[in-house]
Amino acid sequence: MSRVPSLSILPFVCGALLLASGADAQRREQAVPFAAGETLTYDVSWSSYLTAGTATLQVDAKRPSYNSVAYYIVAEGRPTPLVSKLYTLYYKVDTLLDVFTLRPQRASVYSQEGKRHRMKTTMFDQEQKRADYQVQAATTVSKALAISPAALDPLAAVYVLRSIRLKTGQKITMPICDNGTNYKILIAAGGVEPVKTGAGTIQAQQLTLTPEGADIGARALSLWLSTDAAHVPVKMTAQLEVGAFVLTLASRT
After folding, report:
1. Domains of the chain and CATH, by start
2. 9-50 residue pLDDT tens
3. pTM of the shown model
4. What is the full DSSP assignment across 14-63?
5. How many Å apart are CA 135 and CA 130, to the nearest integer?
6. What are the angstrom distances between the C-alpha of 59 and each of 34, 48, 96, 169, 174?
């Protein structure tokens, strides 16, 4: 990360300014298909027939963060009113995605399940290839772990994928740091197909994401990204032991 040299010594003022100018020229924002203010709303269903709740993905802001600038991205999930009467559920996942590197600075997961509240936070230091992970619940547990300098949290990975165009048949891997664990996901690009959503039928490319190298099971996830310039996630599915968990785009603002 570039730092402006000290200007406390008068004879070196001009040279320092030139160095700072050159460093800033190298720190260009990465081109992305999203912007602050974008909100995506999803219907959440289980096994394609039970509407269980709603979820939102929002680029809440673009702001100064940790000596840089970052997109503050938030994902929230809530059950339907009927389900919430039976059991209190709420999930909030967020990430600070650096605009220059498209790497996370900080990621957190807050969950409320009945009377149980839990906060998990990961602080990323890509230069030191290190992450500090903390869980706050009845007690607080912390640990440090070595990471790849390209490591992403899962929410950041979705938005980085939006910034990549893959050809049918192409495969890539992404290093993930989540829940205090390192693993990789293998991403295989499929073909383009129409996907029915609450916002209409949208042409989208299917990506299959298979976790590797962690004790989280080998169940694949699927993500459909629209083929237009916005590259919006229009559908996401996860195959579980008791059925399929499906998010389908309802609206985009």
Report:
1. 34-252 (2.50.20)
2. 333 333 333 333 344 445 899 999 999 999 999 999 876 556
3. 0.84
4. HHHHHHHHHHHHH-PPPP-S--TT-EEEEEEEETTTEEEEEEEEEEEEEE
5. 17
6. 8, 27, 10, 30, 22
